[in-house]
Amino acid sequence: MIAPLLKNGLFGVDTSFFIALIIGIMFGYLLEKGGFGNARKIVSQFYFTDFSVLKVMFTSIIVAMLGILYLNWIGVLDISQIYITPTFVTAQLVGGAFLGLGFAIGGLCPGTSFVSAITGKIDGMVFLLGIFVGTMSFGDIFYEWLEPVYKGGSLGKITVPEFFGIDTGIVAFLIVVMAIGSFWLAEKTERDWDPYKKLRSYPKEKIGVD
Amino acid sequence: MLRKLKILGAGILLVLGFVLAIGYPDGGVKSVVEYTPANKNDIPTLNKKGNAKNFLSKKEIINEPVEKITSKVNHTKSVVRKVVNSHTVKSANIKPKAQTQKVKVVTPKPVKKKIKLVAPPPPPEEEEEDEGC
Question: Do A18 and A159 touch, CB atoms closer than 8 A?
Fold first, then answer.
């Protein structure tokens, strides 16, 4: 198996930085082209009027998942060499809740805030400032205080199939089904959920519109 | 048109997911595991369930057909074939060790000088003095 390319020595660390830069530029460019540098676009999801974020994110998740599993299956990618982030249930629940709050209130997440800031949007810049202040203050002030939180519920490096004791292929299939179901539901909601629907269907003469 | 494309995309994803559900080996396809064998006759090779007990010996790898090895381990035939090839290629490409000329370091033996022990000349016989009676 030749992949992961870096771990199998196909190129060095220096080259990997260069490749990461290229991928980062492409990622940022596509985020901006998709409209995700705009907080209004992201926030629309929480008003049920535009589910682009959900559709793009879920698509990227299942494409990556299927790509990894098929590449492993045909003997190209060694899946055991891929880094898996350790699971800390408490920390990730609390962190996820804060991220969700920031997402809903400010309309940006860490990645999109960079895109937003680089295109000159002030809200993106304020977001970036918040990210740096939060990260630095966590390391300097709260690191010891919050230890029970960020080390709470440690499950180690575990995957969903391992956690539930189900075959990887079946989990993958369920995630695909879930994604397609959510796409269908999102599109249906976008079509049907219209806060101004009643107003539009109201007879024009009654609201005094010519 | 867009609706048809969406249905086509969803169908492809479902088929890909379904194929994984019925055929993907549990835990994924393992790579060749590198480890230091306890026994020198065993070589790092296919790992069956992720532990070091289930390694095949070099003899099994080279002498047995790919199908038989595949049935023993949790790998696809292509992976097994790669490993077998790598072993046979390795064995074919073994370069003879550079023969080191054994230079006999001859340490010169200390030359023992044969010292002739020359007996000291006998002391001249003292002429017996005739003792006068």
Answer: no
State the Rg of chain A over Cα.
22
Q: Which of A78, A173, A179 is facing B31, going by the closest CB pair?
A: A78
The verdict on A164 touching B (C-beta cutoff 8 Å) is no
Walk along chain A (210 residues) and give the pLDDT tens digit of each residue. 677 888 777 888 889 999 999 999 999 999 899 888 888 888 888 888 889 989 998 999 999 999 999 999 888 888 888 888 899 999 899 989 999 998 899 889 888 999 999 999 999 999 999 999 988 988 888 888 888 888 888 888 888 888 888 889 999 999 999 999 999 999 988 888 776 666 666 666 665 655
DSSP designation for B133: -
Residue partners of A110: CB distance under 8 A and separation at least 6: A131
Structure tokens at B58: 């070099």
What is the per-residue DSSP string for B64-127?
Answer: S-HHHHHHHSSS-HHHHHHHHHHHHHHHHTPPPPPPPP-----PPPPPPP----PPPPPPPPPP
Selected residues 132-161 of chain A with any CB under 8 Å from a CB in chain B: 161
Q: What CA–CA distance (Å, rounded) separates A73 from B24?
A: 7
Decide if B21 touches A, using CB distance below 8 A: yes
CB B83 within 8 A of CB B61: yes
Tens digits of residue pLDDT in B108-129:
666 666 666 666 666 655 444 4
In this complex, do A177 and B14 lie within 8 Å of one another by their Cβ atoms? yes
How far apart are alpha carbons A122 and A116 in whole angstroms?
A: 8
Interface confidence: ipTM more than 0.90: no
Q: CA angle, corner B109, sides to B106 and B113, nearest 5?
A: 155
Amino acid at B39: N
CB contact under 8 A, B29 and A72: yes
Q: Which of A177, A187, A188 to mutate to test the interface with B (most CBs of B within 10 A)?
A: A177
